[in-house]
């Protein structure tokens, strides 16, 4: 396969996951609204928001680093997605998974969040330090059970290659990590709630407390870039967790494999939406105590069992 062919396939994969994730974000926003007794936005609203914001320009400047924040955030989302196989065994949706492993993907997850924190730090807003401190503290807390779950899965299969982990789960539902290593799955899926940033772990934006953050600090195309990254990063995280714990998406027919991917990622996002609609937001210290409590203990037990 030539470099140009691989680049074209990767572009197709990126467009597909971006469009799908935007539709999923809009759909889940409507589901959340219905759960709260509201009408809610149309499912296509995220597309309108991105087009509208990218058509605007801003004359406000806080410095170079402030505007590099969204760029780093987008780079983190793209890097996370590009090294994950979306469809197992598909040349079109393999991305560059042959060139990376779990540690590289975890690095890109951190990279986007740290880059955004640096950008926010140059905004000059008096509450910026609050948001950055909350975000980094919670990120450190939920990454602990997530890292432990990854270590347990890697120890179970003897590899850090995502493709090989998916391959080891083929042959039936009983081979999925969710059933062969349920403690690692539980720790990872709880950490996924914090990684998604919704209730009860929406401590960074804190929409009920202080009306600040990227939606008000960033304008025009910079906000459009953040919204695009939200779709790519959400899609990447859902595909990653599908590959790690739920057998990935694999079938002889590409269409069926795509439908499997859609079904599994939809259920993963629905899980996040249901939890977010059912619980109010934690305070920052409550969120941190939660993640370094039961999920971390479960992750430690999962690692110990695999080592033993």
Describe the structure.
The protein is built from 13 helices and no strands. It has one domain. Helix content is 70%, strand content 0%. Helix 2 packs across helix 10 and helix 8 runs antiparallel to helix 13. The chain starts with a helix and ends with a helix. It has 308 residues and is mostly helical.
Brief sketch in words of this structure:
With 308 residues, the chain is mostly helical. It is built from 13 helices and no strands.
Helix-strand layout with pairing:
Layout: H1 3-35, H2 45-54, H3 64-82, H4 102-121, H5 128-157, H6 162-168, H7 177-180, H8 182-196, H9 214-217, H10 220-245, H11 254-278, H12 284-291, H13 294-307
Helix pairs in contact: 1-10, 1-11, 2-10, 3-4, 3-10, 4-5, 5-8, 5-12, 5-13, 8-10, 8-13, 10-11
Order of helices and strands: HHHHHHHHHHHHH
In the residues, how many domains can be counted? 1
Overall pLDDT score: 86
Q: In what range is the share of β-strand residues?
A: under 5%
Number of E strands: 0
Which spans have pLDDT < 50 for at least 5 consecutive residues? none
Give the overall form: globular
- From the N-terminal CA to the C-terminal CA, the straight-line distance is 42 Å
For the biggest sheet, the summary is:
none
Query: By helix and strand content, what is the structural category?
Result: mainly alpha
* Approximate helicity band: 55-70%
How many individual helices?
Answer: 13
Task: Tell me the radius of gyration.
Answer: 19 Å
